[in-house]
Design goal:
The complex is a heterodimer of chains A (514) and B (86). With 514 residues, chain A is of the alpha/beta class. In chain A, 51% of the residues lie in helices and 17% in strands. In chain A, strand 1 (49-60) and strand 2 form a beta hairpin. Chain A is rod-shaped, with a radius of gyration of 76 Å. With 86 residues, chain B is an alpha+beta fold. A two-stranded antiparallel ribbon of chain B has the order 1-2. Classes of the chains: A alpha/beta (514), B alpha+beta (86). The A-B interface holds A 156-157, 159, 162-163, 167, 172-173, 176-177, 180, 184-192, 206, 210-211, 213-214, 217-219, 289, 292-293, 295-296, 299-300, 302-304, 306-307, 310-311, 314 and B 1, 5, 8-9, 13-15, 18, 21-22, 24-25, 28-29, 35, 38-39, 42, 45-46, 49, 52-53, 55-61, 63-68, 72-74, 80, 83-86. Strand 7 of chain A pairs parallel with strand 1 of chain B.
């Protein structure tokens, strides 16, 4: 019977609403009143309630308790959430946030205040974890924890790797297998932690801090924070602020490999490198030894080949030097040089002698040419030419005569040979005619006809009267003999004497004469 | 730190050794160094190749466990029991 106890403590059952205090009853204390109200309330709300409302006047007390109001358009109720309950709230409370609050209704007697004592708080509409994730991500992002400028480069050839994960999970197996396959030289240190549950976040954060602090001692160049796949709830440790801050604070580069490909955690955003899975994290942490072995082999070949080539080249160069004449017979060059010197000396002598003789010859030639230019010599040469010309003239005349004679004789011979009897007379007549013709061609024949040839002294034939002056001696050749005569008058002589007048008047004079 | 670790620390890292080796090969190939010098570098290169191969071959079989020890620092805590499932 829910109402049973109340019946016993309240007034008479017949009391009407709207009536004042029961007359005659003594006034009760405040405590009694509040206790009575509280009792009534507890009787009315025997089970927890769930209330939808908007948070306002939110306050977080230093004790860890949370105080706020829940309200809707028409009403408000004070709410309190004690520390232990508040710790379970993963998202952040703030004014304006619509929530579903579950708890009890009670009265805070000291202030006579009706309050909702909240045990569980969830965001309205979306899951609490989703909201918490979004809120933390936004806050840390604003703070710059995801900023690429904070990302540290991963060491290419790590000496040791520190791993934070469960010692019994699938993640450490995947990581171990991958590291051993790709880079067995790296030592692997594991700090075992719970990766889910209430302690997980704290253990993971501490393991990161401890590994980072011990990195130098163990030569840990890279830290891997890993966990296999799971629900958002399972992965929650990697979505906490403390893990995010531990990763951010580490001086050693951190690779996160949490969940599956599609899972993104806050740890992924803060980590220096995000890997989709634990295996991928291990792959990103170390180089591939097989690839490096190949690279080493290529380098070894290159190293050896060039040195062998160099050695071979040096060996053949050495061989060439050893085989060379200089190396086998060092005196040969001196001898050869001496011989060359002798040769040069000889050639020099010859050249000297030759050039002297050439000089002498040139001198003699120059003297001879100079002598040839002497006036007397020139005169002699002119006289000689003259004589030659006269000679050639006489010869030419004689030759023509001889040719005519020969032709005549030939004709005679042919005539005589062809028709000796019949044409002899005719031939004789022809011969006579030819002879006469021939004689007429000779000037002597002309002379015989009464003409004469007059020459100046010196032999030149006189053709124009103007060529002579009075007193000149002329030689006239007749058919028989010669006569000498002196010019008494001439056209040139009409001009005044001295006999050798200028050539121009002589020329004009001679023209006048003709 | 064990003797082995000290020795490892004193030795060149793989990265340093590989870098030095590449440098040597390039020097020899460029022909800038004389014969004698190139032979000296060749010998150095051979040493580095051996060293690199030793690092590659130095397989660490086990995973070392670290746990918070005295003074709140991490200390070796044995080896992880064989986790390889193959």
């Amino acid at each position: 019977m829910p109402f049973g106890p109340r019946l016993g403590r309240t007034g008479p059952p017949g009391a009407e609403p709207g009536d004042g205090p029961v007359p005659g009853e003594r006034p009760m204390t405040v405590s009694a009143l509040v206790a009575r109200i509280r009792g009534a309330l507890l009787d009315a709300f025997t089970a927890p309630v769930a209330v939808v409302g908007e948070i306002s006047n939110f306050k977080r007390h230093s004790s860890g308790h949370l105080y706020f109001s829940l309200k809707d358009e028409a009403a408000t109720i004070e709410a309190v959430m004690f520390r232990t309950a508040a710790a379970a709230v993963r998202f952040e409370l703030a004014d304006g946030l619509e929530v579903v609050a579950e708890g009890r209704v009670d009265v805070y007697s000291r202030q006579g205040r009706l309050q909702l004592y909240v045990e569980r708080l969830t965001p309205k509409g979306t899951g609490a974890l989703e909201l918490a994730f979004r809120q933390l991500k936004e806050r840390l992002e604003r703070e710059g924890l995801f900023d690429p400028s904070h990302k540290k480069p991963i060491v290419r050839f790590p000496r040791a790797i520190g791993v934070v994960t469960s010692p019994t999970g699938a993640a450490i197996r995947d990581i171990s297998r991958t590291l051993r396959r790709r880079w067995p030289a790296a030592r692997v240190y594991l700090v075992g932690v719970h990766v889910q549950g209430d302690q997980a976040a704290g253990e993971v954060a501490e393991a990161i801090r401890l590994l980072d602090a011990a990195a130098e001692r163990f030569q840990i160049d890279t830290i891997i924070v890993a966990r296999g796949g799971g629900s958002l709830e399972d992965l929650w440790a990697f979505n906490t602020e403390q893990v995010a801050r531990a990763i951010f604070a580490a001086r050693t580069p951190v690779i996160s490999g949490v969940g599956h490909e599609v899972d993104f955690t806050i740890a992924d955003f803060v980590a220096d490198v995000r890997a989709a899975t634990p295996t991928a994290a291990a792959e990103l942490a170390v180089p591939d030894a097989a690839e490096l072995r190949h690279r080493l082999a290529v380098l070894a070949r290159r190293l050896g080949r060039r040195v062998r080539e160099n050695l071979q080249a040096a060996r053949s160069a050495l061989g060439a030097v050893q085989r060379s004449v200089v190396f086998r017979d060092p005196g040969a060059q001196v001898r050869s040089a001496r011989q060359h010197l002798d040769e040069l000396a000889g050639r020099m002598q010859i050249a000297l002698g030759r050039s002297r003789r050439v000089g002498e010859r040139r001198l003699a030639r120059a003297e001879a040419r100079l002598a040839g230019q002497h006036p007397r010599r020139l005169l002699e040469r002119a006289g000689g030419r003259l004589e030659g010309l006269a000679h050639r003239l006489a010869w030419a005349l004689g030759r023509r005569a001889k040719l005519a004679g020969d032709a005549l004789a030939e004709q005679a011979r042919r005539l005589a040979a062809a028709h000796p009897a019949h044409r002899l007379r005719l031939a004789r007549q022809r011969v006579a005619a030819l002879r006469r013709q021939l004689e007429a061609m000779s000037y002597r024949a002309v002379l015989r006809r009464g003409f004469s040839v007059t020459r100046l002294r010196g032999g030149r034939i006189l053709r124009r009267a103007a060529e002579v002056a009075p007193g000149d001696v002329l030689e006239t050749e007749l058919a028989e003999g010669k006569v000498e005569s002196e010019v008494r008058a001439s056209p040139a002589g009409r001009s005044s004497r001295p006999g050798n007048a200028g050539q121009a008047p002589t020329l004009f004079g001679s023209m006048e004469d003709e | 730190m064990t003797d082995k670790q000290k020795k490892m620390a004193k030795r060149m890292s793989f990265e340093q050794a590989l870098g030095k080796l590449e440098e040597l090969v390039e020097q020899i190939e460029s022909g800038e160094v004389g014969l004698e010098e190139s032979i000296a570098r060749y010998e150095e290169g051979i040493k580095l190749i051996k060293q690199c191969r030793a690092i590659l071959d130095a397989a660490e079989k086990r995973i070392q466990l670290l746990a918070k020890g005295e003074g709140g620092q991490l200390a070796p805590a044995g080896e992880l029991p064989e986790v390889e499932d193959q």
